[in-house]
Every structure is written in structure tokens, then in C-alpha cells.
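Suppose a colleague, Dr. K., hands you the sequence of a protein chain of 391 amino acids and asks what its three-dimensional shape might be. Before reaching for any lab equipment, you can write down a predicted structure in C-alpha cell form. Begin with the sequence itself:
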Amino acid sequence: MDTKRLIARGISRNVLLLSLVSFANDASSEIIMPILPLFIVSLGGDELIIGLVSGIMESVSSLLKVVFGFVSDKLGKRKFLVLSGYSTSALFKLLLSLSTAWHHVVAFTALERVGKGIRTAPRDAIISESMPEERGKGFGIHRAFDTSGAVLGAILAFIFISIMGLAYNTVILIAAVLAFVSLVPFIWIRDVKGGENRKLEFIKGLKGTSRSLKIFLAIATIFSLANISFMFFLRRAQVIYSDDSMVLLLYIIFNISYAIFAYPFGILSDKIGRGRVLTTGYILFSLVCAGFVFSIQTQYITPLFALYGVVYAIIDGNQRAFVSDLSTEELRATSLGAFHTLIGLTALPAGVISGLLWTTISYQATFIYASLLSLIAGVMLTAYFARERNI
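The predicted structure, expressed as C-alpha cells, is then:
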């Protein structure tokens, strides 16, 4: 993407620089992520372990997101926390490359997610405060860069595994080096101070959030229980194709779809409201999961992965933008941290439930669970926006 042209279009320099950080860091992460379930299986794990790893990864980071969101608000500073978070993740990616058993993967991926817990809420607050009048646009461009990095990472994973034949550990080591490279743009990022919140108290801060925000967080939490890890989608593709190369190609398709649509859907939500966009995303996810229940032939899997990417383009950035809309300036990072914590804490039970359903009943049970629960969340969100008159 042409950064000069984007600045001319009113995109904040901070947003662009953070987007570049996310581009490189996500390229690093997405070299690892599509091979992670394959790596776990190669080290003796099964679908239950895949669910456990995916759940722990998100839950560990989520326990920290609201805390460091609050710390960021209290200090009135963001940049140092964001840099610390990305640095921590890079270090534990390096250690992950040394794994020789699935137990090591559990430990190092959990510790790598500590970095995500530190950086996410302060980073989102910088984005929100850098483009206060066009938050959907700001988060949309960030997610577009982030996911473009994911496309690059998935392509590199395909090249390293399918063409060059590198070992999983070697590929993860290369990804760790790229994670350290992603820290370079921090040289030019300027801190964005929050409000004067040094007397802010944590519990009172959470209680001070609006009723509308609390209701939305409850609905988003229910959807998060349905939003099972992408590892299950990749594992299903691996079973259907019996070909790791095809799994990586499908993940590339998912990320290309995500990258193409993230920015347009961010702009769309600014223009027509978050309600229509988010509700569509929730219900579309339900349909995608239903598609995986009934799809046993290869020709249906590719369009389902493309549609899965559209779902994430609709939901990911716009949920964050809507939380920012509903929060006050002095509690913005705290509110974003609470959002990330609540939806992340559900990742562990969602992962374990999905893994148990898969191993004890069938893969269909996992996708039926996700489809029905996301449909319920979509109905609740429709009722919420109708009541709030935001659609």
C-alpha cells in the first residue's frame, strides 16, 4: 500500500506506522499459525490438544488486556506498553522454535500471548485517539495491513513447508526473526496521551462504563463462545484433503479475503452504522459453520474459507470501533481491554468444548455448536440495536 497516498487521504501517521508494525508482526505470526495445528499433531497431540492450545493462547492474553488497558489509561501513556508487548511476543516465538513435544507448544504459545495481552488495548487506544472522527476507517486500515501481513505469512509458510521442505521448527525460527524486525517502526511512532487518569480506580473504572457498552459486551461474549478457533477449520481441511499444502493454500485464501474486505467494511460501518454491519457478520458466521457441517467434498471448502475471511473482515475491526464509540476518552483503553478480556476468556471454554465435541461425538457436532450459538448472538444483537435505535 502507498503510505504517502494514504496520509493524503486523511489516514493518521500513527495509524499507518502501527499498521506497518502489525503487517510485519502478523506476517511472523501467520507463518506459525497455519502450521501450528499440524505441528501439534506431529508432536503427538490431537483435536482436544488443538482446542486446549487455542483456548489457552487467547485466555492468557485476555487476562492481561483489561489490566494493561487500565494501566495505559492511568499512566496516560501508550507507546511503551505497545512496544513491550510486541517485544515479549517476539522473544517467546524464538523459544517456540525449540519445542520438541506438544507440552512445549502449550507453554511457549501461552507465554507468547502475554505480549499480546500487554499491547492490544493501548495500541487500539492509539488508533482510536489518532482518528477520533473516523474510527471505523482507522481500525479498517489497521486490520487491512494486519491481514495483508497474514497473507504474506501464510504464503511464506507454504513456500517454506511445501516447496523448500523446511522443518516446522526452522520455519518458526524464521518467523521469530521477522517478529523482531517488526519493532523498527516504533522509532517514528508518537505517543498519544490519554486523559489525566492517575487517580482512576480499576473497579470504579469498569463500573463507570455505560449500560449500552455493558450490554454489547455481554452479546459479544456470547458470540465469542461460538467463534471457535480457525485451527478447527484448518484441521477439517487437513482431514478432507490429506495434504498440508492445500491447508496452507486455504489459509492464504482466508487471509486474502479478510485483507480485501476489512477496509471497505470499516468505512461502511462509519457510513451506515455498526448495527447492520455487525449483525450481518454474526449471522454470516453461523452460515459458514453450517456449511462446514454439510461439506464433505473439496469443491465446497474453498468458497467457505473465502467467506470465512469476509466474516472476520466484517466483525474484527468493527467490534473494536463500536466499543470505542460507546466508551469515554478517559476509559477508552480500559473499555477496549475489558472487551478483549471478556471475548478472550471465552476462548478456553470454547476451545475445550469444541475439542471435546469433535473427539467424543464428531466434527459435525463442533460446527453445529458454533453455528447455533452464533445465530443466537446475531438475534440478540439485532434486538439490541433495534432497542438502541442505532440501525
